[in-house]
Amino acid sequence: MTFFTHEKIRCALKMHRRNFSFKAVLLIIAITIINYTGAYSQNASATLRVSGLVTDLSTGETLIGATVKVKGTSTAVAVDAAGKFTIEVPSAQSVLVANFIGYTDLEVPVQGKTVLDIKLSKVTTNLDEVVVTGFGLTTKKATLAGAISTVTADELSHSRAATASGALVGRVPGVNFRQDNGRPGSAPTIQIRNYGTPLIVIDGVTRDYTSFSNMDFNDIESISVLKDGSAAIYGMLASNGVVVITTKKGKRNQKPTVGFQSYYGIQKVANYNKPADAKTFIRALVQDETYNNRTRTITRAEYDKWMAGTEPGYQGFDWYDFIWGKAAPQIYNSFNFSGGSENTDYYVSIGNLQQKPIMRNLGDGFKRTNFQTNVNANISKRIKVGVGIIGRVEETAQAGLPGDDYGFAEQTAFRNLPTLRPYANDNPKYPGISAVDPQYSYGWVGYETSGKYSQIRNAITVNGNLEVQILPGLKARALGSYTFTNTQQDLHEKSPLLYIYDKNTQAYNLAPNLPAARYVERTFSNSKEITTNFQLDYRNSFGDHNLQAVAGVEARSTISPSLYALGSPAANGIAFIPNTPSAITTLTDNLSFLTKRQNYSTKINYDYKGKYIAEFVGRYDGSPSYIDGKRWGFFPGGSVAYRISEEDFWRKSKLLSNINDFKLRASYGVMGQELGGVLDYLAGYNYGNQGVAIVNGQEIITSRIAGLPSVNLTWGRVKALNIGVDVTLLNNRLSGGFEWFERTQTGLAAGRVDVLLPDLVGFSRPNENLNSDIVRGIEGSINWRDKVGEFNYFFGGNFTFSRWITGYRYKQDERWTSEWARYRGGPGNDEGRYRDGTMQLIGIGQFQSWEEIRNYPIDQDHEGNRTIRPGDFKFEDINGDGFINDLDMKIVTYRVNSGTPWINFGFNLGGSYKGFDIRADFVGATGTTYEQQGYMRYFDSNQNVSQYLADNSTWYKDIWDRNSGFNIGKYPLLTRGANNWMTTHWPNSLWQTNLTYVKLRNLEIGYTIPYNVLKRVGVSNFRVYVAGQNVAQISNMPGGLDPEITSNGGNSYPNPRVYTMGVQVKF
Length: 1067
Prior knowledge:
Layout: H1 6-15, H2 22-44, E1 48-56, E2 67-70, E3 76-78, E4 84-89, E5 95-99, E6 106-109, E7 115-120, E8 130-134, E9 137-140, E10 148-152, H3 153-156, H4 164-168, E11 175-178, E12 189-192, E13 199-202, E14 205-207, H5 209-213, E15 220-226, E16 242-247, E17 254-268, H6 278-291, H7 300-308, H8 319-324, E18 328-340, E19 344-355, E20 365-378, E21 383-399, H9 405-415, H10 447-450, E22 451-471, E23 474-493, E24 499-502, E25 507-510, E26 520-542, E27 545-559, E28 562-567, E29 584-590, E30 595-608, E31 612-622, E32 632-643, H11 648-652, E33 659-673, E34 685-695, E35 698-705, E36 716-729, E37 734-750, E38 768-788, E39 791-806, H12 812-815, H13 819-824, E40 839-841, E41 843-846, H14 850-854, E42 873-875, E43 889-891, E44 903-913, E45 916-931, H15 934-940, H16 947-952, E46 953-956, E47 966-967, E48 971-973, H17 981-984, E49 992-1008, H18 1011-1014, E50 1021-1035, E51 1057-1066
Keywords: Cell outer membrane, Membrane, Signal, Transmembrane, Transmembrane beta strand, Transmembrane helix, Transport
InterPro entries: CarboxyPept-like_regulatory, EF_Hand_1_Ca_BS, Plug_dom, Plug_dom_sf, TonB-dep_OMP_SusC/RagA, TonB-dep_OMP_SusC/RagA_CS, TonB-dep_rcpt-like
Main location: membrane
């Protein structure tokens, strides 16, 4: 550019001095402006090197891996491990754009500065959130047409659950849950909309529920829950919905980053059914002997001594405190290492969880070690390869006990009587008899005395990925996956060695009549799964039109052989040695055959301006479970959405503009449901365990016909209809959604009731696709996120209501003699009825006196009410025949002691301020029933009784006198025996509680040290926290028990209360 100098200006003025005019003035001004502008442009065009720090606005945490880009160019850099960046900008007036997943993009003018510190705020809307929708496809939540919910790594990181499925509880609308016991390593039951166990997909590979539960959820990047027809792309196994897990990967152009997480937790028993103390137990024994006219086993003098509790031999023992009273640790440690260059990225982690049992002497509990790695590399501009490995080792070790080892131990708090003690003469070296059935004496529980059960499971999945860019927007992808799982179980049960102390000789004598020697077991099982997948992905935009498509083929094979050996040792302490044939009494080789499946799938997603959205999915699936001609099925699905808030009239409206996003959605899909066994279509015979025959003095193993082949059985079909709405308003601070859904199962397996077979044939009618069922419900969520100054806060909640309804039943009218008979046949047999609950007598109160019983017009016990006592229940005579029997039963419950509730909900709230943060997660449910009459049956079985039941039962005013009158309690007279079965143990509504509960599942308080303090020691993030799990509950559960348990005696292993202290560090 040519510039005007001051000398040239002076010459021009001299030449025009005599005829100076207005034009000359304009010329001078113009020249001056041009001169100034040229000089400025020359200065502004100079490039600048800008550096700075990218941090979280509220916590000051460095955002490692954030991207800083020069607006309008392709120039971009990634923030390094220290949170720093350096970038060349072409002009002093350039604008930088900083972005990070989960944070709002921020534009920062350079304005000639060479140092810029950028502070990002977490997003207040999830419209830009990327959702994994299956088979490697992703889409923004704003343009999502299906009913898909997501949970991010940030949300999971605040959970202290021992399992990944436990971390999911209460966070997703449409997910029902129940943690029915707290055994070390146990996981909650998770169902999508009460459909059943969902399909699990981890990094594109179908896995089982255990593989998901035992992942380290700190290695999970996101979880997507597919709840409607969008799951149809997964075909035959997707009828119960799909949970899609994506694991963490490294970030490109990021320096190596090391992460460390650790916590130490203390577990304590919570909300458990306490057994009665010795005084209550003795009173109950005396009352039982009084009522039943039994021979007295306790004199008045002995009774008084027990009530005083001061003399040796008459002091009660607290079995609850002895068995459950100790605290047990729960320890977690995890390291991860991640980073990347321009063409590679990597993520490696290893974690370990230890969960000790809270029961005394029960063993080492559960240990799990997780390993995960993801490595991806561009080997050329068009070719990308990747390898992922997910591995784990699970170890369970506990005392070897009869039956279910934990179940046996759980019963002992009631089977051990409070009048007896665990050790003979209180000497721990000599376990004593403390239960009516000696083998339940808890003093002998332990590795050395009762034996040991152990299980080791090793599982590894190796995934290989290849991605080829064929054309712009068109990719070919191949996936190969190999999973191997090996499980070994060892059990050595010892017979109980119990002792009796002889005070005279001061000797410890072995008790007589103890159970015989136990046995040893060993089980080996292997599982191999191979999955191969090839697909073409296409993604492109044509002006305002956006298109995604995928088409692929997948094959999967599995084989799971196992070997079982049983040995009966002659005495305790004999080791189980496989090379000693004489010790093995049973050897079972469960040969497994290879199962193969194949499918073809496609998915197309289209949107116009992000406003009109449509999606189609389809899958052609094959299964080996059916005869030729019935093995393949096609399962389509589709969804549409309309973001009306993107219309011009909406944006221009002052009223509607407060609603930032409003989307209507609808979807319909057909999924397959595999019914029957793999070889049910073949005729054949069953061998083994079918009885024996003696022929010529020799034992011959017999066989039995397997039944008629099911040649007419094929896929069941599940049709899912969903209508939903998503709303974001008030400047994206408030968001929510609502769904209505209906799922119809057709072609359910059943036999033809109008085809009769004589009993002598020994088998039943073959199954065909005859019946149907329906699940119908609603779900919703609402969330608020805002900030006041430097205080950021949030709260939100979700709920799910879902119930089963009995659909079509093949020739239902021909099965029952009347409508009443059909009703009494159960909810699963009556079309149009809710499929839950059990038949119960309807309690209408309690008898208050002998006179009321004598004058009662209804024969309730079928003996003229001779066995009824004051305090016993009264039942409604529904059919008016003057008798109480099963014809007077109705359904007044929900699912009883089983399944997930019909209504689940969760809500959370929290906030952060200058490095401090707090979060509380609540979960709850209603629409489930607990039956508690097992409380009474403990005492019936020569065991102790629940303290709650004893405190709320009917008692004699004088337990030594039958004629003293009664103090009527909530429950009948506390006695043993079944002479009052009709009025105490028959299923009835007074033993049932329709539950409603709310739990504070997680409470966490943390503090993040400011970066300007940490950078001096090379640490980018350091957070400490304290947390509590299963902290408190509000419930109408009788006795304050945990409402999630399913045992009607309340003796399940309780969900422990856990207090933890932990640290999260990044280098």
